[in-house]
Automatic annotation (TrEMBL):
InterPro entries: Nuclease_put_TT1808 (IPR012296), Restrct_endonuc-II-like (IPR011335), Uma2 (IPR008538)
Coiled coil: none
Gene3D superfamilies registered for this protein in UniProt: tt1808, chain A (3.90.1570.10)
Key words, A-Z: Endonuclease, Hydrolase, Nuclease
Keyword NADP attributed: no
MF GO annotations: endonuclease activity
Domain Putative restriction endonuclease stretches: 12-176
Stated name of the protein: Endonuclease, Uma2 family (Restriction endonuclease fold)
Alphabetical list of SUPFAM superfamilies matching this protein: Restriction endonuclease-like
Length: 194
């Protein structure tokens, strides 16, 4: 969960400059900065296994980052900067080496404290990114993910345990259970013996 650090307007360029030296990460939402809280072991494990699956199939011209690379957005004259749980971009970065403006895939792992923000504010801003092809939200507590695709007008597609999904943006086909392979018991996938 993030909390506002200041209730005064902060210039976007000032935020970007200060963030390079900050000990704690902050997201930027139209002049306000919000400190980022730490993520749970479950959240980090799900994100790491998903990142690994994505990263392993990427061509050399693409890169995937986990949690520490900012995406910079300008939408309707307002600036935003978020730290997605997973982000993929292809091609050279012609901007600031601490941010990307051209992701093709963004993944957020949902927790109780981030669900509303990830499904509303971030969704609304992420889909304004011209290069973004897919936005994926992954439950950290149950084997469930939703994929929103530009070529389907950002309508959600849900996948559950037993399903196989495809990330068209990166050419990855994967079983839902593969994302939860190290946390099977915690998300209810543990096989029960009679």
């Amino acid at each position: 969960m993030s909390h506002a650090v200041k209730q005064i307007y902060v210039d976007f360029e000032e935020y970007l400059e200060d963030e390079r030296e900050a000990d704690v990460r902050h997201e930027y939402v139209d002049g306000q900065i919000y400190a980022m809280g730490g993520a749970s072991e479950l959240h980090n494990t799900v994100a790491a296994d998903f990142h690994t699956a994505i990263n392993n199939i990427l061509p050399d011209t693409c890169r995937a980052w986990m949690a520490d690379m900012k995406v910079k957005i300008k939408a309707q004259g307002k600036f935003y900067a978020y730290y997605p749980d997973i982000m993929v971009a292809c091609g050279e970065n012609t901007d600031d080496p601490y941010t990307r403006t051209n992701p093709i895939l963004i993944v957020e792992v949902l927790s109780a404290s981030t669900r509303r923000n990830d499904l509303k504010e971030k969704f609304d801003n992420y889909i304004q990114i011209p290069s973004l092809l897919e936005y994926v939200v992954v439950s950290q507590d149950t084997p469930h993910l939703r994929i929103f695709r530009r070529n389907r007008d950002w309508q959600p597609e849900s996948y559950y345990a037993g399903d196989i999904f495809c990330l068209e943006s990166v050419g990855l086909e994967l079983a839902v259970e593969a994302i939860y392979r190290r946390v099977r018991r915690e998300v209810g996938l543990e096989i029960k013996l009679a």
